[in-house]
């Protein structure tokens, strides 16, 4: 069975687009030419890959399987290209990272700033994803590197612990809870919370924990960063659950009280996920080593 790399890349473009027309455009093909290539691919595999209707395209189960393999093949092709670039083994390439909220907003920008400044030939695609999507993305080859907090069960992946943080509660200085040293999540549910935006990993995690308590999380406002949460808390708008590293940093310039969360899940082990460390190009391995040393 013979596969053409342009056909696999075309299939990925179509699978990641709302329609065959837009996928074809990304591959610089006409819709008719793209459709003919997909039909030829289906004939070769003996399986239907796409459901087509007026609303666009949807992957069949066979299409989902091909997408996973196609992504892995094309990532390996990209790795091959980057390893033989004129810039050297770790100074060029493209890295796609799926990471949780804390990584995207807190420590990765600083780490990546120094990393990219030293490697002009490297580009990075950093995406905030939920924990389950981070694991699935690395498994499927959609991401080179996953960064996650908390326990993770993924025996097919290599998991590298690189730092520890914990979740804490921040409250205004005159808040009823401000004189306590520790609180439970249940203690906080009587008060309005400042939360992160929809889709953030921390908000999704807290909602799961609150659901297990049989309670509800009262969100007064949702914002886009831990700094914004702290500013709202300082102004007396509500309370907020954030990583301790963020609380310590922002408490240097804001009037906040930080309380320990007396919960077994409050301690968050940070881990990096990859499919095969030795198979990654030098640019990815260099970033992994930097994270191991500096966070």
State the end-to-end CA separation.
46 Å
Mean pLDDT: 89
Number of strands: 12
Largest sheet, strands/sense/barrel: 8 strands, mixed
Counted by DSSP, the helix tally is 11
Helix content: 40-55%
The 3D shape can be described as: elongated
Low-confidence stretches: none
Features:
295 residues, 8-stranded mixed sheet, two-stranded antiparallel sheet, elongated
Task: Describe it.
Helices cover 44% and strands 24% of the residues. The model has no long low-confidence stretch (mean pLDDT 89). With 295 residues, the protein is of the alpha/beta class. It starts with a helix and ends with a helix. α2 crosses α3 (31-45). It is built from eleven helices and twelve strands. β1 and β2 form a beta hairpin. Strands 3, 4, 5, 6, 7, 10, 11 and 12 form an eight-stranded mixed sheet that branches.
Topology (elements, then pairings):
Blueprint (H helix, E strand, L loop, with lengths): L4 H11 L4 H7 L4 H15 L4 E4 L2 E4 L1 H23 L8 E8 L1 H17 L3 E8 L2 H10 L4 E5 L8 E14 L10 E2 L1 H4 L4 E4 L4 H13 L5 E5 L2 H9 L5 E4 H8 L5 E5 L5 E8 L7 H13 L1
Parallel strand pairs: 3-4, 3-5, 7-11, 8-9
Antiparallel strand pairs: 1-2, 5-12, 6-10, 6-11, 6-12
What is shown here, in short?
The protein is an alpha/beta fold and 295 residues long.
């Amino acid at each position: 069975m013979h596969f053409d790399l342009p056909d696999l890349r075309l299939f990925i473009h179509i699978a990641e687009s709302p329609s065959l027309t837009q996928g074809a455009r990304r591959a610089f093909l006409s819709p008719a030419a793209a459709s003919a290539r997909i039909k030829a691919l289906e004939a070769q595999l003996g399986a239907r890959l796409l459901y087509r209707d007026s609303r666009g395209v949807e992957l069949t189960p066979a299409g989902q399987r091909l997408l996973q393999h196609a992504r892995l093949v094309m990532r390996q092709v990209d790795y091959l290209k980057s390893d033989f670039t004129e810039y050297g083994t770790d100074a060029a390439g493209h890295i796609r990272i799926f990471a949780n909220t804390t990584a995207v907003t807190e420590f990765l920008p600083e780490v990546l700033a120094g990393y990219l400044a030293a490697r002009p030939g490297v580009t990075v695609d950093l995406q905030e994803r939920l924990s389950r999507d981070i694991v699935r993305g690395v498994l499927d080859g959609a991401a080179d590197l996953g960064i996650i907090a908390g326990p993770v069960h993924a025996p097919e992946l290599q998991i590298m612990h690189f730092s520890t943080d914990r979740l804490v509660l921040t409250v205004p200085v005159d808040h009823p809870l401000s004189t306590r040293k520790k609180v439970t999540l249940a203690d906080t549910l009587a008060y309005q919370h400042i939360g992160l935006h929809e889709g953030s990993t921390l908000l999704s995690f807290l909602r799961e924990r609150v659901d297990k308590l049989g309670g509800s999380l009262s969100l007064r406002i949702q914002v886009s960063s831990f700094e914004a949460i702290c500013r709202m808390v300082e102004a007396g708008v509500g309370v907020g659950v954030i990583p301790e590293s963020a609380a310590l940093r922002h408490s240097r310039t804001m009037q906040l009280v930080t309380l320990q969360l007396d919960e077994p899940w409050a301690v968050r082990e940070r881990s990096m996920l990859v499919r095969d460390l030795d198979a990654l190009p030098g640019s990815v391995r260099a970033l992994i080593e930097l994270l191991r040393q500096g966070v």
